[in-house]
Amino acid sequence: MAQRVAIVGAGVSGLASIKCCLEEGLKPTCFERSDDLGGLWRFTEHVEEGRASLYKSVVSNSSKEMSCYSDFPFPEDYPNYVPNAQFLEYLKMYANRFNLLECIQFKTKVCSITKCPDFTVSGRWEVVTLHEGKHESAIFDAVMVCTGFLTDPYLPLDSFPGIHAFKGQYFHSRQYKHPDIFKDKRVLVIGMGNSGTDIAVEASHLAKKVFLSTTGGAWVISRVFDSGYPWDMVFMTRFQNMLRNCLPTPIVTWLMARKMDSRFSHANYGLIPQDRTQLKEFVLNDELPGRIITGKVLIRPGIKEMKENSVLFNNSPKEEPIDIIVFATGYTFAFPFLDESVVKVEDGQASLYKYIFPAHLQKPTLAIIGLIKPLGSMIPTGETQARWAVRVLKGVSKLPPPCVMIEEVNARKENKPSWGHLCFPLWPSHKSHDQ
Question: Among 31, 159, 225, 262, which is disulfide-ready with 108 (CB 3.0 to 4.6 Å)?
């Protein structure tokens, strides 16, 4: 009898996990709490609990050539960078092509996943779900968690003195949908990740004034790279990766800075990363330098104090009147349906072997897929993770002893990755792009 596998979430990683299970002869059941697939890529006008949230204008940061599933390319008539509506259509075409929909139970919330009493022998799990007000329980041989890490906003209000006295509007970037709310307003965006930069640039077309506050700076690159090619087609070749892995970190850092500054001097624009040796994802924005040089977006340091209708920046005696504050301060992550003893999350990190398997479990029958930020697209990363994880769940591939896995996890916590490793684990500093 085929092993039964519970999959939580029908986003890009969940769909890949279903397909990998089917290919290996396993029996997957995917639980999706919303009424459709797509996860992050399904735009809705209102924020849905437990699901990542998009703003209307989102376009993929990775080119279609570097973002597709391995056996299902994007349609040729799609643009190189794909708007969210077309990206969702692609995911639906993928699901239909490989008959994945019949494995998905929509409008079904996973309430709890607990070890069966005989777990040390069987490795099985009891999964309790809620569908249309009715709780159901089922036993599964293995579990794949594909919920991502963009559902729990990180909003560190205590880090901003005076925020509770502020009488204007403020919200996390997760709540942002359309730029209309910024018309003729004085806007402050805090945090210079991709979302914060996008929102600041969009606001600058309608707002009276836009400030973008950054404490750490960032390398900003355009989707259009050398000779007009998409950035990831140029930057993420095997040769480039080999070079970054072979050369000493100081040389890689110097080369990276030189390349990043070839379009415009980040120092002149107030964007130079303070710590250029620490790994931090690039910000992709085609408009930002032009908005800065024309005064439409004003780069500012961190916040010293907030007042009723204004903000005081560090190293500045002048208060700036503000109407709206957007906290683009990133996300935390948690697994509310799992006991803390199953997946340990400490200091913003999960103790996962190869970012997938809880290192301390007696049986390797639970896998976390997609809890990593690749420099490029999540689709090939999640698919590769799922392919290996399914073979481990099936028993074809073996994991090392727990002591070896735990040793690697601890070593990774102590040594932050260098530029050669183009995936970004969720370090404490990564839960906020700019804190």
Answer: 31
